[in-house]
Sequence to fold (143 residues):
Amino acid sequence: MNSPRHAFSKLRLRSIFTGEGSAEVDRFLTERRQESRLARNHVRDGQTGLPQLVVGDFNMPVSSSVFRSHWSDLQSAFDTAGFGYGYTFPCDTKRSWPPGVPFVRIDHILADENWSIEHCRIGRRNGSDHRMIAATLSLRSTD
Fold:
């Protein structure tokens, strides 16, 4: 999903005072809401009665109002069985943050109620601009 940093990177001091900056951020937030809604609808439409997992870079933490609106009905593997902060991004900052020290959790493993999440962890090394997230899950008994 689209990253919010693109909207914020366009802010300039003048745009904040003229209102153009906040209008751009609002427009981008509307796009992100729509993108997340469409992705969630696609996942729902693909349900075939089989257990579901949704994994990837959501470009938003679970505390995001966009995430809560569209994805909170699924279990977050890290929230359920992780330890610590679970930060996965960014790993290759070039500015005012130490490289290799992510500070936000935007990569997720989400599971429906058919799954039991036993363990979740974040990788310790940088292989890209994100850290790996891995989980151990098992299917719940249908008896």
